[in-house]
Amino acid sequence: MSASLKLGIRPDCKEEIALKDPLGVIHGRFQGLHLGHMEYLLAGVARCDHLLVGITNYDPVLAQPTELEGLHRAKADANPFTFYERMVMIRDSLTEAGLDRSAFDIVPFPVEFPEHIRNFAPPEAVYYMTIYDQWGEHKRQVLTELGLRVEVMWTRDDSQRLTSGTEVRRLITQGEPWEHLVPPAVRRYVTQNGLTARLRAALPGGEGASL
Questions:
Q1: Starting at the edge strand that comes first in sequence, how are the strands of the sheet with 48-55 ordered?
Q2: SS3 for 174?
Q3: Which of 59, 87, 93, 195 is the most exposed place for a label (fewest CB within 10 A)?
Q4: SS3 (DSSP) at 103
Q5: In 3D, which of 148, 145, 163 has the Cα closest to residue 26?
Q6: Least confident of 1-5, 148-152, 158-162, 200-204
Q7: Is a pLDDT exceeding 80 seen at residue 187?
Q8: 72 pLDDT band (50/70/90 cuts)?
Q9: Are the CB atoms for 120 and 108 separated by under 8 Å?
Q10: How far is it, in rounded angstroms, from Cα 103 to Cα 167?
Q11: Counting runs of H as helices and runs of E as strands, what totals does the chain give?
């Protein structure tokens, strides 16, 4: 059984990919990692021999959101997990899905400062994207203008999302079931490290919420 099916993720591409790219790059905030992210990551894994996973907004102090991106992406309550915590969630979820640790690396990805991207990801890689909104279109334009090769794996609207980080964080804050929307490795990491309490304290309506 494929990793996508094990996680209950719809497969994006049913046909076999005959010739893989040597190096692929995927990027996102991953606040925190959910099944929609895993669908994106595993689609990238299927397209390349080695995957770089770039974490954006890796230092919220440095983040400078554009008007198009929306200020909500830079707010503290939208960024409760540190770079390290997100790295662990991604690492453990990919290995749990069956990917060899030598097949991927996790790096910062300063999409907010495009001129610095080449310091973290090489220009000869293929940059995989999925597009759901204007922010996604903007990022594609940014990467293309840098002379990078961009491959859009799919274009969907918000109604076609498996879930979102906003929704998962909301459910945690309100004490509702959320575990079914994230990989098992994320569920364990969040619960074992008391991160639900952090979210309930940080998100709107979270202060004083019962654990």
A1: 104-108, 48-55, 21-28, 126-131, 149-155
A2: coil
A3: 59
A4: helix
A5: 148
A6: 1-5
A7: yes
A8: low
A9: yes
A10: 30
A11: 7, 5
Dihedrals φ, ψ of 28, to 5°?
175, 170
DSSP E strand stretches across 133-181: 149-155
Burial tier of 95 (Cβ tally within 10 Å: 0-12, 13-18, 19+) = middle
Q: Is the pLDDT of residue 206 over 50?
A: no
Mean pLDDT over all residues of the chain? 87
Chain centroid, CA 87 distance in Å = 10
Report d(CA 130, CA 157) in Å as an integer: 10
Cβ 95 vs Cβ 103: under 8 Å:
no
E-strand stretches of 72-138: 104-108, 126-131
Confidence of residue 154 (pLDDT cuts 50, 70, 90): very high
**What Rg do the C-alpha atoms of the chain give, in angstroms?**
17
